Amino acid sequence: MESVLLAEGVSQSFGSITVADNLTFSVGRSECLGIIGPNGAGKTSVFNILAGIIRPRSGRVLLAGNDVTHRSQYERTRLGIGRTYQVPQPFGLLSAYENVLAAATFGGGKSGREAADFAFETLKRCGLAARADTLAGSLPLLDRKRLELARAMALQPKVLLLDEIAGGLTEAEVRHLVQLILSIKPGLAIVWIEHVTHALSAVADRILAVNAGKAIAEGAPAAVMADAAVQEIYMGAIIDVPSEG
Ligand SMILES: Nc1ncnc2c1ncn2[C@@H]1O[C@H](COP(=O)(O)OP(=O)(O)OP(=O)(O)O)[C@@H](O)[C@H]1O
Ligand SMILES: [Mg+2]
């Protein structure tokens, strides 16, 4: 499968903390690559490298075959890298609709009626039509997560980076979110960092496990969850396996 996004031998560290140690991974169209690893493993930092917030010390980031390693965050957004943040980052004093409209306009390059219609369609697609006029700052957590997704989708990205979007949700909310992510997956490349591994396993085609910036296992979700090195870094914690049919 041709890579939509390819990280090639990416390395970076902050002082003595290594967040990426010669990491290579890729994701293709209609595919989801899951990333797991303990707190502080460097997962969000890897997203920051992909999105252009931090530069890798070495290695390259390719989007649809083009080297974007030296492109700014803004350019990468326009070129098709959309992301959600671990802690939702909406404009709290704008409505849900206005947040998505801002993304469609400034990130997605749309204007006028086209931007307005597309923003509303995207809100609807993400299950937020009834919340269009609600101030983003007063949305409950699930809706703030959906809004993160809607803002990223409003860019019409080639690749979507999801950073712990299921974190803090109830089981029922996680199930809704999984259905939503499955519904947007066709045609999109998704990289999803997640501690809620049963949610991740329901969507991801492959999982990459990292620890201290290093890849320790990669493959089919069930195989990675069962991997001895992966079990060990979770220090014997029972990793939940998919329980839904
Ligand atoms: N800009 C920065 N400057 C210095 N240290 C940083 C910076 N960004 C992250 N770190 C450190 O790098 C390490 C990895 O952080 P990162 O947020 O990438 O981990 P993570 O795998 O996403 O963890 P979590 O699962 O808790 O979200 C942490 O020790 C963090 O404090
Ligand atoms: Mg993180």
Describe this structure in words.
The strands form two sheets. The protein has a six-stranded mixed beta sheet, sandwiched between helices. A four-stranded antiparallel beta sheet has the order 2-1-4-5, covered by helices on one side. By secondary structure, it is α/β, with parallel strands linked by helices. The chain has helices at 43-51, 73-79, 96-107, 112-125, 141-153, 171-184, 197-203, 221-226, 228-233; strands spanning 3-14, 17-28, 31-36, 58-63, 66-67, 81-83, 159-163, 189-193, 206-211, 214-219. Strand 4 (58-63) and strand 5 form a beta hairpin. It binds adenosine-5'-triphosphate and magnesium ion (MG). Magnesium ion binds at residues 43-44, 86, 163.
In short:
The protein is an alpha/beta fold and 245 residues long. The chain contains nine helices and ten strands.
Straight-line distance between termini: 27 Å
**Total separate domains:** 2
CATH homologous superfamily caption of the largest domain: P-loop containing nucleotide triphosphate hydrolases
- Unique bound compounds: adenosine-5'-triphosphate, magnesium ion
The top level CATH class name of the largest domain:
Alpha Beta
Major beta sheet summary: 6 strands, mixed
Shape: globular
Number of strands: 10
Helical run tally: 9
Instruction: Give me the secondary-structure category.
Output: alpha/beta
Helix content: 25-40%
Report low-confidence residues grouped into runs of 5 or more: none
Percent of sequence in beta strands: 25-35%
CATH structural architecture of the largest domain: 3-Layer(aba) Sandwich
CATH topology of the largest domain: Rossmann fold
Instruction: Sketch the topology as an H/E string, one letter per element.
Output: EEEHEEHEHHHEHEHEEHH
Largest sheet: spatial strand order: 6-7-8-3-9-10
What Rg do the Cα atoms give? 17 Å
The average pLDDT value, as a whole number, equals: 94
